[in-house]
């Protein structure tokens, strides 16, 4: 990525580029001394970033990561290509398959549908952030125990989605599981195992919560 | 019993049990590194410019602007001006740049001009009147129309309107009339206007198989019941979640990251690790031995990933142009769907007959389908049943689309849906329960009859067939109709050639090296099971190294050949290693080597556990040096044959069909499957469940839809190329045949067979539910409603 020929970072935003002209309803361009250019669009002041590289800072798995990226780079590509966090996979690249699922402010999102620049200032959790070292979370262990994975390419997305679903829906029915996890696709056909993961983790959480009603909130899953 | 033979159930701690896959933890924690994840320092992004036309000639290419762009490191023209392109999405130019956005910009800066040529992408219509394009009827066209029973009026009209591009002599006309061509049609030919065929107007239809056995006409004439029907399955894609792709780099002599002797380092998503280097060596004109090929994990292949492909070679060339820096080209989703593999379509008009006892007597099929420019596959019809009297022919249609690749059990799912649907329709006409009907005809399945005879009652029991089945057409009130259907299948699955090295170290550690791949089938797990089982040590003590072409050669993972191959070579290596260890240990135990056994991490005297050494102490007797042995498959010098071929399986489906919306839901599927000796019941069951789910997917949702006007795929994505989701999958029940009659057959592959039957079983269940046949897969709401409407 470090290359002398690479397009240079643009902290001052080039207004001469075609891309800028494409913005509709643009009024007056007001270059500021620092930070992005601001233009008046549809009656409001709008900051214009790029099209060249700008400094982007992300909070990923509790760490601050920074890079010079073009504003068009997605959160997924930034995680994978720039920060080498490759657990989230690029599969459909347009918000259908869920293989790139990460948590943004604790909520699952398709990382291919979020621009890295828009994810600044938010807590991002990837599958790598769910564990420390070689230990598995109970949900990950359940994926192993129920053989809920074959090629494994959809698995990280499913693990993140399942973990969040179980935290949010501790009393889910089998139908709820089908609906709640239908934002992820698998090609090898591991859904039966994934359903078993959800059911057994829910049963385990229920038996724990008899003693400790806050177990679910505390992330025992 | 030979040393090498698979052990008895009593003496196998892991083999045949339910064992969790050994690479489960690394996958579920997201740490498994796939080719797509390969991200070394200085990696360049490779991208490919593809042809937007289904058939065209390149007239000019201008890459000058792209080459001047900052960050662009190399540009490679893949097909030069003058080249004829035969399908949309074919590769034209490749670029490598510092990152993906820059590479994409570079593609947009390349100017390619094309001369569009006429294209043809339609396969759903039977091959009848090719001259609809306006051209004259060729001799092939005419004969295809006759073979496909195009109504005489249509044939005559086509001849009169378009003329003919051949000269039928009197002998030809006489022969035609004698072979059954209508007199009026012969007359039309005789008086037809001759029209010169325009150049390049070759018919896309090509007859690939014509065969008659027995006396089909007499058999049909004297049969008790005959049905005719139209059946088939549309083109689908492999839709691997990890798209095809490869990274290539040319390490310099001082590059510490490369193994000594490696001039070209390749990371590739492949089912064929050992077979990649030769395919790169040839176009790159370098010794195959200087290429190192690596892959630890692969995100799906299903038969589509055996070669480096054009993009892999392009990555290699781009890297070379860029001074050896690593270049990675992974296909984007649209290219993956459009050009990286599809399963040929197959459709057929079928006539089938039985005698009064419900024994099949005659079969006639006129099938057609496409597998891209090269034509199509020929489904083995009639499937698995050797019906005594047959007449069949197949027409391959050449269409302008990316070529077919092996798709899990090539040709079998199509053959199953055509054959099993026809049989079910005949059984319905004769008012015979299809389980009973198939049972009466099992003697026609040859050597696998005994397997099916075992399996059919088990499947029927699991489905509660006797209670739940009803004659055709659910007569209950309400719009939702329920039905049951079944199908049977077979596959070969003999183990491929496989070498492995097994090393025992003096400290007791054990490692195995093999240049194979684990597609998610559990390959790593079964190798580890066999080694641990044979050496009597915990599975954790076996370190397995795969995914590097420098290890001993093992076959490609295609055709369900891996399980039999890798377990057989591992078993032989482990037995030899164990016996050599026994020879070293025997003096210390004051015993003969042949009286020793390796159990529970000890080496001990058989029948006297008091005379034993721990595994670690036993291995210390090796002295200072480790010991390596080579295991092979096949190996006639070390009998018996540990693998086998020819499995049988039975599947049943329970569906609900909403007759108002046309939506089909699969309530339950059962699969009873044989694969000889099951090494790991857990991963085997997963494999079968996965096949059922993939089957639900292609039976109900998947279709590669081509636009006849533009020749392009209309759904090269995952929102409109629909895979089954978790909500579409209900109850799945799997029963693996094990024990006597099965274990002693040896290890047989399992990947293909269970994916053959779901389409046929589901189609039959839908027919049973709504009382009429929906001819083609996928059984979309539109197709279901169309049939319901046609039948009132």
Helix and strand layout, with pairings?
The complex is a heterodimer of chains A (221) and B (792).
Chain A: H1 18-21, E1 26-30, E2 37-41, E3 44-48, E4 54-60, E5 63-69, H2 75-82, E6 101-104, E7 107-110, E8 123-125, H3 138-145, H4 155-168, H5 174-180, H6 191-209
Parallel strand pairs in A: 4-8
Antiparallel strand pairs in A: 1-2, 2-3, 4-5, 6-7, 6-8
Chain B: H1 24-28, E1 44-50, E2 56-62, H2 64-68, E3 72-77, E4 84-85, E5 91-97, H3 100-109, E6 111-116, H4 139-147, H5 152-162, H6 170-178, H7 183-190, E7 205-213, H8 216-222, E8 225-233, E9 236-237, E10 245-249, E11 264-268, H9 276-284, E12 291-294, H10 309-321, E13 327-330, H11 333-339, E14 342-343, E15 346-354, E16 360-370, E17 389-397, H12 412-429, H13 434-440, H14 449-463, H15 465-468, E18 480-491, E19 498-504, E20 510-513, H16 523-535, E21 542-545, H17 562-589, E22 596-599, E23 602-605, E24 608-614, H18 615-620, E25 627-633, E26 647-658, E27 664-673, H19 681-700, E28 731-736, H20 758-770, E29 776-777, H21 781-790
Parallel strand pairs in B: 1-13, 8-29, 11-12, 16-17, 20-21, 27-28
Antiparallel strand pairs in B: 1-5, 2-4, 2-6, 3-5, 7-17, 8-15, 9-14, 10-11, 10-13, 15-16, 18-26, 19-20, 19-25, 22-23, 23-24, 26-27
Helix pairs in contact in B: 5-7, 6-7, 12-20, 16-17, 19-20
